[in-house]
Specification:
Blueprint (H helix, E strand, L loop, with lengths): L2 H7 L7 H12 L5 H7 L16 H8 L3 H7 L8 E4 L3 H10 L1 H4 L4 E4 L6 H10 L4 E4 L1 H9 L10 E4 L18
Length: 178
């Protein structure tokens, strides 16, 4: 059986905190001590309610970030974002950026993916400008963080595009490289 055949039969369901906890323990379980694994566990209070698939992306963001205007106005740091949205692909990132127009207002959004954008360009943009929302892929975000081009200290929200499926019906968390 191909993974796409299996995934085609499973209905999309909202991600839950336990899904992420299981992935973290699977990924880090082999090379971490019991104490270190215990420290990786996040309490349920760290998680906001998942999109129950009845909301558009903008309406979901409005629901989970009711004080967005205040957060946006108080953010003054360069090389950082208040909200980071992680997607499985550049095309999905662009789709989400277009769909959040009702939510974002006059804030600045930066694209954090590799398709047609060089990492040096993104590093320069982050250094010179101030951005409120970053939307991108895990690989590019990781590269920017490792090169100290993106600082995560002032980040308040991490949104995982957990349920979206690509042409092969894989979710972001089904891709081994992620």
């Amino acid at each position: 059986k191909k993974i796409s055949d299996v995934l085609q039969k499973s209905a999309p369901k909202p991600g839950v905190p336990a899904d992420l906890q299981n992935l973290l323990s699977q990924h880090f379980g082999e090379n971490r001590s019991v104490i270190e694994i215990e420290e990786l566990k996040l309490s349920d209070s760290c998680f906001l309610p998942a999109n129950d698939l009845t909301h558009s992306f903008s309406s979901y963001l409005k629901e989970i970030c009711p004080k967005w205007a205040k957060l946006r106005r108080s953010h003054k740091e360069k090389k950082s974002v208040v909200m980071l949205v992680l997607c499985s692909s550049a095309l999905r990132s662009l789709e989400l950026i277009k769909s959040m127009t009702a939510f974002k207002g006059d804030c600045r959004v930066i694209k954090l993916f590799a398709k047609h954008i060089k990492i040096k360009e993104q590093m320069n943009m982050l250094e010179k400008g101030m951005f409120h929302i970053g939307v991108g892929t895990p690989g590019r975000v990781k590269a920017l963080v490792e090169q100290d081009a993106l600082c995560l200290n002032s980040m308040k929200y991490v949104i995982l595009d957990w349920n979206w499926r690509d042409q092969k019906l894989r979710r972001m968390m089904d891709i081994p490289e992620v």
